[in-house]
Amino acid sequence: MTMCIPFSIYYGDNDIIVLVSVGMATSIVGSFLFFFTKEKDPEIRRREGYIVVGLGWMILSLFGALPFVIHGAIPNYTDAFFETISGFTTTGASILNNIEEIPHGLLLWRSATQWLGGMGIIVLSLAIMPILGIGGMQLFVAEVPGPTKDKIHPRVRETAKRLWGIYVILTGTEALLLMLGGMSLFDAVNHSLTTMATGGFSTKQASIAAYNSPFIHYVIIFFMFLAGINFSLHYYGLHGKFQVFGQNDEFRFYVKILLAFSIIITASLYILDIYDIEESFRNSLFQVVSIVTTTGYVTADYEIWGPFFKILFFMLLFIGGCAGSTAGGIKIVRHQLLIRNSFSELKRLVHPRAVIRVRFNNNAVSQDIISNVLAFFLFYIGIVLVGTLVMSLFGLDFESAFGSVATSLGNVGPAISSVGPTQNFAHIPDLGKWVLSFLMLMGRLELFTILLIFSPAFWKS
């Protein structure tokens, strides 16, 4: 919260005391817990790692909501918690109808929750708090998105430092480019924080549509695209090993998906005479990249384009970015492994005695990973269906219920119908917001982290 105070002072807002007092209170509580639970040589096993990650996100969100409530910007604690956990999980779903009336310090804190959540609070702690002195592999496994963990250094702490170094460099670069495009310093900082986190919170009620600048749109498209890529590839790219991008199966498929959907939508918009060719390309590319990377920014209301576009964008909610990126969702690598395993099964039916292995990046994929992917899809589908039923109990129509669950579990932000690109979640009943908050947390922590905690077998010695 400290980084928010200078902006509050500069703009003369009335949120300075709130930010200082809440920041001090949380620091005192954190220090108390740290020093009174500190062990000489603490060892975190896999079980404790999952518990720390799961509870850590909940506690951060519970405390992170306090500035909004105490100031009165969001007087209802349920709404404040929803907004905060939406930030930390980089979902970007919002209940605010008056974003531009919120004090600057609180707006920056809102954006900072996404930036911190982007690579994971636990990874951040390992990068900047070496004083913890704990072995972090279990936390890294629980926190880093995706079924495979590409480490760029044998020590988790060093890996975290390198990842966050890249994260900071890209964030700063985007902020500078946005200012060159005419954004104010404050808006540029906020949008660079939430773009690299693939979060989607904006300082404008109309999101990026408030900026009628093709340059700004293309800058944000580029950095959303970068944020959706496995950060280990960025590391190797910064060291001159650009060939790793072309060699990576997931990256190639990621680019193909973005291009395919963008071309289809661009052609359709132009043929239907909705926009000219450049606007058709820019609006389609922006929305496709935004949803696939689970950022959730919008420059246009795709629902008014027609049902064809609405269905296409709803399909994109279930894709997700690359594993090892800040993006949420199912992840492209899982889709690839599911597709390749399905074709392998067809080949086995034709050649029952043949040894057919699923391959990824020229390596054979173990059956354990395939089983993990299949289980993930099964749980994901089941949670979406059950969640839709639950949300329908609160009076939401089918599209709104289905959309709210899909976008929360996928950490996307906008969906369709009453939770579409120009709408928000303010109308959802309080109990429904708690359900969606839980789904955001499940999605951000890749389902299994939360499911394991609620599994009886997890607690058996």
Describe what is shown at a glance.
This protein has 21 helices and two strands.
What does this structure look like?
A hairpin with a 2-residue loop joins strand 1 and strand 2. The protein has 21 helices and 2 strands. By secondary structure, the chain is mainly α.
Number of helices: 21
- Radius of gyration over all CA atoms, rounded: 22 Å
User: Rough shape?
Assistant: globular
**N-to-C SSE string, H for helix and E for strand:** HHHHHHHHHHHHHHHHHEEHHHH
> What structural class do you assign from the helix and strand content?
mainly alpha
Largest sheet composition: 2 strands, antiparallel
| Beta strand count | 2
CA(first)-CA(last) distance: 40 Å
Rounded average pLDDT: 88
Record keyword descriptors for this entry.
461 residues, mainly alpha, two-stranded antiparallel sheet, 21 helices, 1% strand
How do the helices and strands line up, and which of them pair or pack?
Blueprint lengths: L4 H7 L4 H21 L9 H19 L1 H6 L5 H12 L15 H16 L1 H8 L8 H7 L12 H25 L4 H12 L17 H14 L3 H8 L4 H5 L1 H23 L5 H16 L14 H10 L15 H19 L8 E2 L2 E2 L2 H26 L5 H12 L20 H15 L3 H6 L8
Antiparallel strand pairs: 1-2
Helix pairs in contact: 1-6, 3-5, 3-8, 5-6, 5-20, 6-7, 6-10, 7-9, 9-10, 9-11, 9-12, 11-15, 14-15, 18-19, 19-20
